[in-house]
Amino acid sequence: MKTIRNFPTIFLLASATLIPLANIFINKLQENIVDVFPSDLEIKIENGSVKSNMPQPYKIPFTHLQKLLPQATTDLSPQIVFEENFLVIDEKAKTEDILKYNTLLLLTNSGIVIKEQSDAGFRYQPFSKDTNLTIDRRTVRVIWSRISPMAKWITPGIVSAVAVIMLLYYPLWHLIYLVFGSLLLLLYMRMAKLKISFKTLYRVGLYSITLPLLINYVVSIFLPTLWLPFSFTLIFLLFSQYMLRNPSP
To answer: Whole-angstrom Cα distance, residue 56 to residue 118?
Structure first.
């Protein structure tokens, strides 16, 4: 219950960190996305077959992408990036060569190999025979010019997601908790040989949960490190019994 009680605070703190980072990332993306793509690299896919104009294996290391990342993320990159390369192009490579090249992506003559957490350690995605395209810096510039207007909605999207989650979190969690609490009350009533329906107990729970919620809120503000196991449930059950024994007229 302690983790659940502190979840909103943790979530808000995480959001306060992520939103500025998202803004910095978007700005850096807009400034550097085209320049990150090597100016002399051209990749052609004709009828599902890959051809590149560069000597192979051609490697794009992760360090080449650091200009896209906020400084805080760049400082952590040795801890969060375990591959030396972001992309390796080798038309003669086999799928398992992705492990040898220590890369996240491996472009072969017929598809792309993607490193992932699985038994094999990678996944192969072949190109269909209908695939025909050219990828170079000019292509990246055109694609980015089309999608960049949507980048301005990323930060508002994060804020909206935080707001929606916060609005849904408390009602949904406590409505689910009420089912559990009402079942405990029902068990107690059966042991006490009192015939009260689950529907009535749930309705009582809607009122009696307000006291532990209020106490929980006050404690989380003034004594955030204080946590008594099952205190929320205990207060809920005791207050529910009080309300059942002293019904309002």
So the answer is: 27
Using alpha carbons, select from 233, 243, 244 the residue that is nearest to residue 192: 244
Ordered per-residue pLDDT tens for the chain, 249 residues: 444 455 555 556 656 666 666 666 676 666 677 778 888 899 999 999 999 999 999 999 887 777 666 554 444 444 444 568 889 999 999 999 998 999 999 999 999 999 888 777 889 999 999 889 999 988 888 887 787 777 667 767 776 777 677 667 767 777 888 888 888 888 888 887 888 888 888 888 888 888 888 887 777 677 766 667 778 888 888 888 888 877 665
Angle at 167 between CA 162 and CA 173, to 5 degrees: 110
Which residues are within 8 A (CB) of 231 and not within 5 positions of it... i.e. 6 or more apart?
A: 1, 212
Q: Per-domain residue ranges for the chain?
A: 39-135, 155-245
pTM over 0.70: no
Nearest to 238 by CA among 193, 204, 199: 204
H or E element that contains 116: none
Where helices occur in the chain by DSSP H, the ranges are 2-36, 71-80, 97-100, 137-147, 154-191, 198-208, 210-222, 231-245
Are 135 and 43 in contact, with CB atoms under 8 Å apart? yes
